[in-house]
Specification:
By secondary structure, the chain is mostly helical.
């Protein structure tokens, strides 16, 4: 039963994308009109892509597994910081 309850608190792709869009909106990184036109998967994948060189930093399988483990965008970003190469960290510092 505890495993079932743990799964209830995990974020869905749609909710994670919503939270990440809100994070971008609050930081005025992307215009609202542009954000609304970007698919959920692209929003999520943008966080797993180096802003400096454009290289994808984790595999699709790792990204899917990571999303299944987290409860919100903060956990998602924290976990990415733990597993992504230094290239991503230097770009966001």
């Amino acid at each position: 039963m505890s495993d079932l309850n743990a799964n209830l608190t995990r974020v869905t792709n749609k909710e994670l994308a919503r939270q990440l869009r809100e994070r971008l909106r609050c930081r005025n990184i992307i215009a609202d009109e542009v954000m609304r036109s970007v698919p959920d998967e692209s929003v999520i994948e943008s966080y797993a892509t180096c802003a400096s060189c454009g290289q994808r930093e984790i595999s699709e399988d790792t990204l899917r597994a990571l999303i299944k483990e987290v409860r919100n965008e903060r956990e998602f970003i924290d976990r990415l910081d733990q597993i992504a190469p230094l290239c991503r960290k230097s770009a966001t510092a």
